[in-house]
Amino acid sequence: MELTKENTLALRNKLIGQSVRLFYSDSPVKITRARGQYLFDENGTEYLDCISNVQHVGHCHPSITEAAARQMDLLNTNTRFLHDNIITYAERLAATLPAKLSVFYFVNSGSEANDLALRLAQQYTQQEDVIVLDHAYHGHLMSLIDISPYKFRKLTGQKEWVHVAPLPDTYRGVYRADQSNPGKAYADAVKDVIDQVQSKGRKIAAFFAESLPSVGGQIIFPEGYSVKVAEYVHSAGGIFVADEVQTGFGRVGTHFWAFQLQGENFCPDIVTMGKPMGNGHPLACVVTTAEIAGAFTANGVEYFNTFGGNPVSCAIGLAVLDVIEKEDLRGNAIKVGAMFKHLLQQLSSKYELIGDVRGVGLFIGLELVTDRELKTPATHTAAYIVKRLKEDHIVVSTDGPWDNVLKFKPPMCFSMDNAKRVTQCIDNILADIKTKNLELDRDDV
Ligand SMILES: Cc1ncc(COP(=O)(O)O)c(C=O)c1O
């Protein structure tokens, strides 16, 4: 017997730590099944999912379920036995990456991947310090809270080995799209951080960044940024870690990895992957160069991860890659993403509240402001739109330092009709705000 929604909530409040938060905390949704880009609540009501980038190829995709069940029925062990799945999977992933990224470590979550990346960087460089971007989030382990300004600012603060560079946000950051070469300007800001660190006698082990900062507000790096940063970081003896936990596996459409948007002459030294990799199954990974992996091996300590890279996880990972290819989900991300962005851009000519529409593929942000000149974040308006979209049975959430960016990272099977429906609903809500003259960022929502 299923619990009533009220009972589920009451028991959850009692049994589950309250810092494990719910979407729509004042009126949570109970989801009991899902398919493709649709979620269904306990009454069978359908919700359109615009944010589950984990269920990359679609919720409960039959090919993934079938691959998991088949391997589950046959064998699941740890990586201390030889098995073909881990090899086949590593080979398939290697084919999507530049040749120098050739050694894989399989783990269970984005946090584990980033924690291992940090260890690899520090072991290889024999240096300690890390540069991260403002507002970044890299995971929930203590090591990652330390390198996540989004978290440490609310907790114990910044450790002496962690340094923060400005978020290369060309919409509201210090260097904007209308000035010449913002990519170089933001990279030079990283160089300034390196100089300050070195002037204190400290040394950089790594520059850590998401290839498209998501918690930071769906930010797209300006052209030339990563190449220049890598140059500066390398000359300081450090390495470049690209966190692709949110953005990998073709979400940007044109490329398999978001770091590839920075051009063919850019290659990170480590890439971490997670969320979409197992379509909801806990599967994550670190890939690096033979040289960095060699330094890690040379410390003589075994790296053992009980569940990482087991035959079931790898069978699922392989099935995800197959579905991306067979259903041309990258092609879909290009087509639907471009049209969705275009539709949202059209709305911005109707509503002053829309400050910016940005994104690539199915990674899109709609930034709301109360004043276009001042770019004042319209945080309450964004929260109001999320709430109203829920009434339209559309699941969306916000991101960015001021929570004023509506983020869209739907399963990759998101359709043109889905994009049209979401745009129409946002249009209706914004029209309502306009006609009723609601000043949500002054009034209480
Ligand atoms: C960019 C990024 N890196 C790492 C993580 C941590 O991944 P996980 O929650 O799987 O540990 C997250 C999770 O939200 C993330 O967004």
Automatic annotation (TrEMBL):
Pfam families documented for this protein: Aminotran_3
Alphabetically ordered keywords of this record: Lyase, Pyridoxal phosphate
PROSITE patterns per UniProt: AA_TRANSFER_CLASS_3
Keyword DNA-binding: no
Matching InterPro entries: Aminotrans_3 (IPR005814), Aminotrans_3_PPA_site (IPR049704), PyrdxlP-dep_Trfase (IPR015424), PyrdxlP-dep_Trfase_major (IPR015421), PyrdxlP-dep_Trfase_small (IPR015422)
GO MF term list: lyase activity; pyridoxal phosphate binding; transaminase activity
Similarity section: Belongs to the class-III pyridoxal-phosphate-dependent aminotransferase family.
Protein name: 5-phosphohydroxy-L-lysine phospho-lyase
